[in-house]
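Researcher: We're teaching a course module on how sequence relates to structure. For the next exercise, students receive a sequence and then see the predicted structure as C-alpha cells, so they can try to spot secondary structure elements on their own. Here is the exercise chain.
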Amino acid sequence: SLNLLEGLIPSKEEAGVLPAQHLERIFIFALMWSIGAILELEDRAKLEEFLRGHESALNLPQCDAEAGQTIFEFVVDSNGNWQHWSERVEDFIYPTDSVLEYSSILVPNVDNTRSSFLIDTIAKQSNAVLLIGAQGTA
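Model: And here is the predicted structure for the students to work with:
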C-alpha cells in the first residue's frame, strides 16, 4: 500500500502542498486498492461496508447503490475529487490505414483503464507488479 500511496502523491515541485482532503482521499484510494485488489467482489462489498461504518467517518465517494456502484469504481482526480473510472476511459478509434490483428486489439473499458492506472502507478517507481486472477480478468 505504501508503494501505491507514494506513487499517487505528487512531489511538491509538481503540485505544491496538497490540501488535507485531497491527501485523505489519496490515502483512502491506496487503502481500498492495497487491500481490496486481492478480494473477490463479495469481499470487496464487506470491506466497503466496514469502511463506511467506521467511526472515523472516512471521506468515501458517493455511490449510486441502485446502479450497483461501489467505492472501487472511483479514483481521485488531480483536483482531489472522486471521479468515476468511466470518465477516464478513452474512445477506441479503429485505424483506417491498416488492419489490426484480432489478438492485438484492446478496446478501452473501465477494467483495463483501472488496471493500467494501478500498474503504471507502481511501475513508475521501478517496483515490480504482479497481477493475479483468472486469465482474461485483468
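Model: If you want an answer key for the exercise: The radius of gyration is 17 Å. The CA atoms of residues 40 and 133 lie 10 Å apart.
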